Amino acid sequence: MAGHNKWSQIKRKKGANDKKRSAIISKHLRAITAAVRSGGSDDPSGNLALKNAIAAAKSDTVPVDNINNAIKRAAGGADSGQDFKEVTYEGYGPGGTAIFIEALTDNVNRTVADVRAVFNKRGGSLGNSGSVAWQFEKKGVILLPDASEAAQEAAIEYGAEDLQVSEDGLEITTDPTELYAVQDGLASAGFTTENASLSRIPSNTVAVSSEDAGKLLRIVDALEELDDVQNVFTNAEWPDDLDLG
């Protein structure tokens, strides 16, 4: 988990400096739309994908009105020309790192071409289906600003699988189906979570040099800038001196 913990810190620092708010909001609203349509319900209590999408949007401070409007439009059949499909891509980055990409698209040919172009331009390579997926496991991840012993005990009591303490607080790993049960349990115990979302955690990490880490970060940034890409995961063991500028 140490590598993932470091990446979580990097993501938060990048997010704090990210000025492309409209792009971030658009990605979340796309995920919400897809969740309503694929789940056949606009009620998050009976649609886990929608619940996940709403939670992720709120974690990135997407306005509640935007979230509610997206749910209403999707449930009402608005924008019916956009039927988003969930697709994943796998590839390799500098230093032998693995990259796993989650996307939502209404045009698979366009998306794969865009993803391949990023890899080709930035020094990576797009792999075949299954080439790196086996290295990542889907988990729930909760970020808690409070890393006290009481918070750790509560997390374990409510079903956490793993805990990591960092300068930013406590990172809690759960079974993906238990994410919200653990979060709700922590809330009932008086602990407020900063973020709760589904993630892909690498089973093993690969240490990369500062030079390769910089190249990999540029690949990740370019992939995340694509409209269709929702999430990018890597198994890199990021160096402490990584420049996020």
UniProtKB/TrEMBL annotation:
TACO1/YebC-like second and third domain mapped to chain residues: 84-236
Gene3D superfamilies: 1.10.10.200, 3.30.70.980
UniProt GO MF annotations: DNA binding
Occurrences of domain TACO1/YebC-like N-terminal (ranges): 5-76
Family: Belongs to the TACO1 family.
NCBIfam families, per the entry: PRK00110.1, PRK12378.1, YebC/PmpR family DNA-binding transcriptional regulator
Protein's name in the database: Probable transcriptional regulatory protein Deipr_0143
Organism name: Deinococcus proteolyticus (strain ATCC 35074 / DSM 20540 / JCM 6276 / NBRC 101906 / NCIMB 13154 / VKM Ac-1939 / CCM 2703 / MRP)
